[in-house]
Amino acid sequence: MTVSEELAAWALGLRPESVPDEVGTRARDAILDTVGVILAGVGEPVTRMVGELVAEDGCRPVASQLGTALRTSPEQAALLNGVSGHALDFDDVSRSMEGHPSVVALPAALAVAEAVGASGAQLLAAYVVGVEVMGKLGRALGARHYQAGWHATATVGAVGAAVAAGRLLGLDREGLGRAVAIAVSEAGGSRQNFGTMTKPFHAGHAARCGVHAARLAARGLTASRTALEGRYGYFALFAPGFGRPEALVASLGRPFELVDPGLSVKRYPCCFATHRALDAVLDLRREHGLEPDRVERVRVTVPVGGLAPLIYDRPRNGLEGKFSLHYVVSAALLDGEVGLDAFTDEKVRRPAIAALEERVEVDEDPAIAVAHNPMEEGEVRVRIVLRDGSVRAGVVRHPRGSPARRLTRAELVAKFRDCASGLLGPERVERALACLDRLDRLDRVDELTAALRPAVMAA
After folding, report:
1. In 28-125, at which residue ranges do the beta strands (DSSP E only) sit?
2. Exposed, middle or buried, 388 (CB in 10 Å: 0-12/13-18/19+)?
3. What are the tens digits of pLDDT across the range 295-340?
4. Chosen CATH of 272-400 out of 3.30.1330.120, 3.40.50.720, 3.40.630.30, 3.40.50.920
5. Are the C-beta atoms of residues 162 and 179 closer than 8 Å to each other?
6. What pLDDT, on the 0 to 100 scale, is given for residue 456?
């Protein structure tokens, strides 16, 4: 068998009832978090723009945009929920793929599951398979893929989404292999677009491409059997000379990505590369009662490569602010917190922020050891010099929400309520939480999607 066919055989071999208990628990936690951030992003401009276009074109209404009354095709529902889930950059992160797995895997799987009348257990298993493929594919590509400028959420995500969607569509091994091959030709996404609306579009586009690839494969569309490992295949294009296609299949489920290394759930709605610095600054501010007018300068030191996604020193708007270490450190000092409201254009453009940004210095230290992912390995150091000459310093190796410092179930539920309450209202929030809590026991996933519509829209 080719790599695509071996990958398909493994993906089809995992039965819902054989998902290990710990993997299932991690999957339910991740799905809870992802649904919450999808709801939180419904009102964002990028989501509205994409949604208006989808509504204008019209489609057979078989799958839901969460948090709205819109029902559309599986492809378009996957697109919208992926865009919405990544619009705030509040969704989870995978160390293995250096990107965001759940915001691609879940929208793709959920759209198809709703369209075909799948159960919650079938959805959960498809999500597990999608995340597993993304993580192991990211590892097989290696760090050079991200360093070259590719956005792995999109390039890796499209393939994982195709596997998750194709499994729910009932494709056989050969058909799922073709779905993977079709997704290879749909994958793409440049990190140059970070800090713009196109970055969240990447996530939705990858989810849509995966669903599209699987549906085309179901109709018999042909594709190369060696689309992953071939001379002009996925690895040759996205990681020339460094990819290891032979390592992909052998590593699947050994162990599962959801358990080891696990996913990082975000406490702050901005690029994960900023989170260790944010933890350090906020801890120092609380511990020492630091006020911004006492701060002379701040130095943040990260591993080599840790600044790669942080491409804005002086951001001009909220989207750019999510990828600016200068801004988030300044906001943490000024406000004492960094929440959803920290990334409005008005907040980013405050004169007090501009003054603080001038005092923030960032650098990379090659002495900080990193094996693969500088956003999660090694450490981040923060040194705050006060106007009286005294120094406050902190070091963070693992940010809150990372596998080493997991959020509790109560914290995940609190985040979900914060994300969803403004859209759903208290009664529907509790109904949605009840569905998510027993996801693997739902007879049909449309019980969940119905609970995720605002009451006035669902009536």
Report:
1. 63-64, 71-72, 93-94
2. exposed
3. 999 999 999 999 999 999 999 999 999 999 999 999 999 999 999 8
4. 3.30.1330.120
5. yes
6. 61
